[in-house]
Amino acid sequence: MIHGSTLNNIQETNMTMKKSTSVTKDPICGMTVDEATALHAERDGKTFYFCSDHCRQKFLSTRAGAKTEEKSGGCCG
Q1: How confident is the model over 3-47, as pLDDT tens digits?
Q2: Residue 75 gets which letter from DSSP?
Q3: Does residue 74 sit within a domain?
Q4: Using CA atoms, how far apart are residues 65 and 27, in angstroms rounded to an integer?
């Protein structure tokens, strides 16, 4: 038999586990983005994530291996 407080702890743990997300940095501006909701593009078998379509388009317009200039404060802020 599971007591009420133990059941509540199990439910809270399950809810916490579902909320965990994976974050990464936008390769153009350096902004932290959530992989679950961010725009993305693939290059050479790797997925890159972006804060905005502006950064995604800038990434897509540069050739693979080319360095992009990051503005101080990023392009978005």
Answers
A1: 555 555 555 544 545 555 799 999 999 999 999 999 999 999 999
A2: S
A3: no
A4: 12
